[in-house]
Amino acid sequence: MDSFEWNKIIGAVLGTLLFVVVLKIATGAIFEVPPPAKPGYVVEGVQEASSGGGATAPVEEALPDWGTVLPKADLAAGKDVSTRCEQCHDLSKGGPDKIGPNLWGVVGRARASRASFSYSSAMASNHDVWDFDKLFRYLKSPQTMVPGTKMTFAGLPSAAQRINLIAYLRTLSDSPMAIPAPKPAAPAAPVKAAATSNATTTPTGKPATPPATPTTGVSNPPKK
Asked: Which pTM was predicted?
């Protein structure tokens, strides 16, 4: 095979590659699909995957005094927050399970105790009662409290939102969990009275020596 034949073969290969590249560029330009201006369905609070892997542990916070905060909670605001829960849970009495279990009576119910729902092994590993403290911690960061849970909700950072939500969920029960008595007020710290002293002190803190009676240096003349 002479060089002319080789040149034709090489030219054909190069021409084919060039055609494929041009076709790919043209196809991408013609059939490019722009991202939607508005997603069709958004689950609020879903935690996006991070490069570090796993949820970041939140800063530990003090637990509320439930006997004080629950009677003052805003039930209307709690109901509004609960609409986020309803994307994955049903809240009605006798309602079905959805992506997550039905939440009627969840406050005061044992964890992973609904027989009709298939819980993750992480959630089913513990059957403690969902009391106010546990719900308060869980709703802040579900993946932190129960690593491996199916629940993808990132959590509610706001303590006020969690208190209002828990207060509302408490009402979704035939026998709502009792509100504990308020915690006794902490005793006031004793005020230390400043020690007073009648003694005059010098800048060094030592009592000053009273001044001596001045003398004139003149003696009384002898009597004649």
From this structure: 0.60
